[in-house]
Design brief:
It contains five helices and 14 strands. The protein is of the alpha+beta class. The strands form three sheets. A six-stranded antiparallel β-barrel has the order 1-4-5-8-7-6. The protein has a six-stranded antiparallel beta barrel with strand order 9-10-11-14-13-12. A two-stranded antiparallel ribbon has the order 2-3.
Length: about 250
């Protein structure tokens, strides 16, 4: 936007310096700026956030041990989630429940490259797993991580991932609250110090990034509240703050 206005101004100045040209006035400049504002469609904040984070988002698939059905065809239990690249060497954060018990973990990077991966670290108390990709794109981009210390309810956020395996998909919303607690549906685990948000998230978003409108990662999407027992979003999602998530990989980014 600024560059376009500068170019327009430069052209106008050049024209004004030509022999016989009318002197450029402030009224001319104001009119040129107004016309540019009226005719230029700017991307929304959510678009900019999505474009910033998408090179670092991966699809994560956990495959169980193959079994044969009555017709002799082989099938494997499958879980689909999301991960986010935090180093350009292929270190990836995701949820532990996405990959726990998987015989094989498969990744699909933003450019379409597929790779298997190994679990190199876990943080069960926050449902986090650290993966190492066995093969990575040549130009792999790590996400930018941002401190959560100055977040406040009402701040805009975007969740990016593979809900029900569809994606990559983006949804936007706001931070609804901080320092929340969530009890797993089976009642076996309580996760604390969570970011509550209302950007739509569903099964498959698990392990994906929650980002600011600048595309900086502030959390890892971990759970959704389901008071009716259905696997669908009712407006309350939770993310582990990135400080906790990064520590699972031995990183202290802030």
């Amino acid at each position: 936007m600024v560059g376009l206005l500068a170019l327009l101004l430069a052209i106008s100045l050049f024209s004004s310096m030509q022999p016989g040209a009318r002197k450029l006035t402030q009224k001319d400049i104001n009119a040129a700026v107004l016309k540019t504002l009226e005719t230029t469609v700017l991307p929304s904040p959510a678009v900019k956030a999505y474009e910033a984070i998408i090179p670092s988002v991966v699809r994560v698939t956990g495959l169980g041990k193959p079994t044969k059905d009555k017709d002799g065809d082989e099938h494997a239990d499958r879980s689909v989630g999301t991960g986010v690249v935090i180093t350009d060497k292929g270190t990836i954060l995701t949820n532990l429940h996405v990959v726990q018990g998987a015989q094989t973990i498969k990744l699909t990077f933003a450019d379409g490259l597929e790779s298997t991966a190994s679990i190199t670290g876990v943080q069960p108390e926050n449902d986090l797993a650290v993966l190492q990709a066995h093969k990575i794109p040549d130009d792999l981009m790590a996400a930018t991580l941002r401190s959560t210390s100055d977040l406040a309810p009402g701040d805009g956020v975007v969740a990016v991932g593979y809900p029900f395996g569809i994606g990559p998909s983006a949804s936007s919303g706001i931070i609804s609250g901080l320092k929340r607690s969530f009890r797993s549906p089976d009642g076996q685990q309580v996760i604390t110090n969570l970011i509550q948000f209302d950007a739509a998230a569903n099964p498959g978003n698990s392990g994906g990034p929650l980002v600011t409108m600048e595309g900086e990662v502030i959390g890892i999407v971990t759970a959704i509240y389901n008071p009716n027992g259905q696997r669908s979003f009712v407006g309350i999602g939770f993310a582990v703050p990135i400080e906790n998530a990064a520590s699972a990989a031995g990183m202290t980014p802030f």
